[in-house]
Amino acid sequence: MNDLIDxxxxxxxxxxxxxxxxxxxxxxxxxxxxxxLESLDYNFPKAPLAAGFTATCLxxxxxxxxxxxxxxxxxxxxxxxxxxxxxxxxxxxxxxxxLAGLSLDREASLSELARLAGExxxxxxxxxxxxxxxxxxxxxxxxxxARHYHAGFRLGLRIYPYFASRRA
Length: 168
Hints:
Blueprint (H helix, E strand, L loop, with lengths): L4 H14 L15 H10 L4 H21 L4 E2 L6 H13 L1 H5 L6 H12 L8 E7 L6 H17 L3 E6 L4
Helix pairs in contact: 1-3, 1-4, 1-6, 1-7, 2-3, 3-4, 6-7
């Protein structure tokens, strides 16, 4: 499971950046741009990037939960509890190292999504079930998430990929 942590953080960061108000405007915040990080640096001087990452992921989680639901499903911003804890701890601990090494601009985030996706797909708009809960904690599941998010940002569609307890 530990080999999934870094790709999940990279995927979350790319989607978090692309979904901000000044890009695709999926959520109404922009903590992960220059002005947002400057503001966070004042309030969280030891870890502004970790604070911005966490706050943006919470905004994304709320939106995904509204569109998909919360019962019997998991998505990029609501993983199963053990995996979620590992991702959050690692992102917070590595904020200065790992997150700071990743670019926070639109083109770099799209490139990162393309790299994680491996290939382009088309996807319908809205919630899309891409597997069952067990798939969420696999490399195949992360790749499927990346493909759908990449399609959404590339095509200008709001796509919310998720895993459910059983096939739809």
